[in-house]
Amino acid sequence: xxxxxxxxxxxxxxxxxxxxxxxxxxxxxxxxxxxxxxxxxxxxxxxxxxxxxxxxxxxxxxxxxxxxxxxxxxxxxxxxxxxxxxxxxxxxxxxxxxxxxxxxxxxxxxxxxxxxxxxxxxxxxxxxxxxxxxxxxxxxxxxxxxxxxxxxxxxxxxxxxxxxxxxxxxxxxxxxxxxxxxxxxxxxxxxxxxxxxxxxxxxxxxxxxxxxxxxxxxxxxxxxxxxxxxxxxxxxxxxxxxxxxxxxxxxxxxxxxxxxxxxxxxxxxxx
Length: 271
Ligand SMILES: [Zn+2]
Known about the structure:
binds zinc ion; alpha+beta; 10 strands; 271 residues; 29% helix
């Protein structure tokens, strides 16, 4: 599932190819995504210029003068830039045709993704208005997390993954950040010290930045417009490493089920 780093890498890869270009048209081959693709999307977008591309949580916002195209990659979606005459394959559901023989193509086998039109102001839209703080927001620090956790009793991993509190930290990166911060994923947020909150805030940012830097080659793939999804370097410290030695203390990594998701942690150094 695309998580924040993949979405941010996609955004960075698209910016040089989309911003400043006009949209010639839209082809919707299958509107039945997570929510129906609006029937009038083509009419709204034709002739519009792409002013910018932003990310909010795992949503991409393609800014135009009269509104915004919101794209979510769902479970299996990806965006690629292909030449106009590139024949569509089975799961290529939406094309946005740009000037200069380029088409932005959404491929999504499981169709949990979304393409919507958001009139101004986009931030007030129901999908965006309730989103929590961005990990790359300058205010994202230990004190802010501690304040957001006040009065709650949930396990810290559930807290981190709650998109209404912190946006875009999915299962993998929550696991990895807790490992880096040496905090047990089941620990209640009411029992975390100010110092540990600060470690956690830093660890979330480090984990995401690490993933972004690993996506550097993805950016080049993207710029090559070959439509390949990009080869993410999946080098995790704890995630997916059950039974393997902890890179810090050599204790075997353990796995547990938490809210129907797998959590990986080191019983030796995550207390
Ligand atoms: Zn360890």
